[in-house]
Amino acid sequence: MLVTGGAGYIGSHTVKALGAAGHHVIVFDNFSAGHAQAIRRAAVVVGDVCDGDAVYRALVEHRVTAVLHFAAWLSVADSVRDPAGYYANNVGGALSVLGAMARASVRVLVFSSTAAVYGRPVETPISEDHPTQPINPYGETKLAVERALPYFCRAYGLEATSLRYFNAAGADPDGTLGEDHRPEIHLIPRAIEAALGGPALDVFGEDYDTPDGTCLRDYVHVSDVADAHVLALGARNEPASVMVFNVGNARPHSVREVIAVVERVARRPVPWRGAPRRAGDPAVLYASNAKISRELGWTPRFADLESMVETAWRWRRDHPHGYQNGSAS
Question: What is the pTM of this model?
């Protein structure tokens, strides 16, 4: 298995899950955002996914039979500031990987997508049939790749699965892998940082039409997201076809609920302050996971918010400087 972006947050957890399932894994990463210390028992090829020749060489030299493509930029705010860069990296990089797969006759792809392809929900929970109308360049880049996949599948005989994540959270339960973004943009690690004396947490909007006025979101443990990839590899879809699955817990939690759970787990307050709503933030966003449960047999092992926060808290407590503390092996 070639895992592009395998040194990143979700990628590294998936590399571990693939190894546990008996797969031989090659990580392909340029380490612009990932961490070498997060790679466990996998060979490494240093390269950029936009370099199609480098991807092709890795596929051929390691006799790869399937690709899991994670390597993409993920900040909504940055995508608004730099859409050219996001299209070049997220779309251009994915097309480069697909082209290399076609040249090397590698037929199986699992694509890391996002719930951002849906845009503002017209109904919840969101099923895979929900309209796809992204409201930011990040979501648009992921949807552009999804739209390209059927053409590549028909022309080159590929089999592709697209996994649309909601909010990945938490850390590997054994404490060796965790979330280490620079800068950190996700709610749970930022709330933990505030509890540890960092900057107060900004709560963007307190007047939504929700029970406590803050946004409701679907959080899914990163190890459960990793499990979904292993199951997707084993799925037998029709030749030259694309399968799409949501990866979420099918139940939302508010920002204030997250704060309360962090305070309970950390046993200390989370300083926070109200801030204006962010443009494009819907009040409620959560998944239907009926399809992935029915067709792949996926069931979250860490479905409760407390498990996500507790594993994230232990990772941050034991790695106050992230992977700079030392090896993950």
Answer: 0.95
